[in-house]
Amino acid sequence: MQKRKLVIIGSGPAGYTAAIYASRADLQPLLFEGFYSGTAGGQLMTTTDVENYPGFPEGIQGPELMLLCRKQAERFGTEILTEDVTKVDFSSRPFKVIGSKTEVEAEAIIVATGATARRLDIEGANEGEFWQKGVTACAVCDGAAPIFRDKDLYVVGGGDSACEEAIFLTKFGSKVYLVHRRDELRASKIMAERAIKHPKIEVLWDSVVSKVEGDQVVQSVTIQNVKTKEEEKRPAGGLFFAIGFDPNTGFLEGQLELRETGYLKVNDGGTNTSVEGVFAAGDVHDHEYRQAVTAAGSGCMAALDAERWLSSQGLID
C-alpha cells in the first residue's frame, strides 16, 4: 500500500485549490476527484454560465472553469485519481483511504467532497430536461443570469433559505412566487415576514410545482394545489429549488464530528476537524455561503493548515 503525506478527497473549487497549494508546497498530494457518484469537479460541472468568479469578466462555463483548475493542479504535480473514496479509517496513523480501485495511507487528509443540492422529481426539471436551463438550486449563483431578468420566477421551499432566495431574486425577476406545500412557512418569523410583506413576492400556499415546460429554456410551470388537486399552468422564466443541501459525508461513517445541520464541524475560522491531521474544505463544512469562490478560499486554507500541521509533527522538512 502506497503512502502519501497528503491525500485530498474531493475536487471542485475546494479540492483543486487545495491541490494547487499543496503541490506548490512540495507535499506531492494525491487527489481522489470522484467518478461513480458523479462528483468529479463538484457542482460547477452541472452549471452553465459562471459570472461571479473573479478573473472572468465575460463569465465562464462551470465545466470549463473546473477543467482549468484541474490542469493547474496537475501542472504543479498533483496526482489525480478519477475514482470515489468508499471508506476511510481514522482510528490509527497513518490514516487509511480506500477508493473504488486504490488503497493508500496518508499522514494528513483534506475532505473536500462538497454537498448535493436537494431536488424534487418534477416532470421537466430533471437532467436532460430543463435542469440548468432555467431550473437551478442556487439563486445567488444563477439568479443574475440574463434568462431570469424581468421574468416571473418561482422558488420552491418554505424555510429561511427559500425566503432569502426569493428576496434575492426580486432584484432580477418581475415577480417572485414562493411555492410552499403547507399553509405556514417553516422560516424564522423575521424571514417569513420579510418575504410575505415584500411587494414583489407572492406566496402560493398549499401548492407544489407538478410540471415544467418550455422550448430551449423554461417558459412555464404548472402549479397544483395539494388540497383541491386543481392545476394551473403559469408563465415562468425560472424555477429555483431552495429545500436544502446534503453534505457528502456518508463515506466517513461518523468518524468526524458533525454540526446539527449534518455538515462537518471545523474550528472557528479554520479548517481543522475533530480528528487531528484531518481538515475540511468547501461546501462539506460550509453551510452558510456555498459559493465557488469561498470554496476555493477554504481549499487554500486547508492546504496551508495541512502543511503547518505536517511540519509541526516532523513529517516534512
Overview of the structural elements:
The chain has 317 residues and is α/β, with parallel strands linked by helices. The protein has two domains: 2-116 and 245-312, FAD/NAD(P)-binding domain (3-Layer(bba) Sandwich); 119-241, FAD/NAD(P)-binding domain, CATH 3.50.50. The chain contains six helices and 19 strands. Strands 1, 2, 5, 6, 7, 8 and 19 form a seven-stranded mixed sheet that branches. Helix 1 runs parallel beside helix 2. It is elongated, with a radius of gyration of 21 Å. The two termini are 23 Å apart.
Q: What is shown here, in short?
A:
By secondary structure, this protein is of the alpha/beta class. Helix content is 22%, strand content 27%. The two termini are 23 Å apart.
What is the topological layout?
Layout: E1 2-9, H1 12-24, E2 30-32, E3 49-50, E4 60-61, H2 62-75, E5 79-81, E6 85-89, E7 95-99, E8 103-111, E9 115-117, E10 135-136, H3 139-142, E11 152-156, H4 160-169, E12 175-179, H5 189-197, E13 201-204, E14 207-214, E15 218-225, E16 231-235, E17 238-241, E18 245-247, E19 278-280, H6 292-312
Parallel strand pairs: 1-2, 1-8, 2-5, 8-19, 10-17, 11-12, 11-17, 12-13
Antiparallel strand pairs: 3-4, 6-7, 7-8, 9-18, 14-15, 15-16
Helix pairs in contact: 1-2, 1-6, 4-5
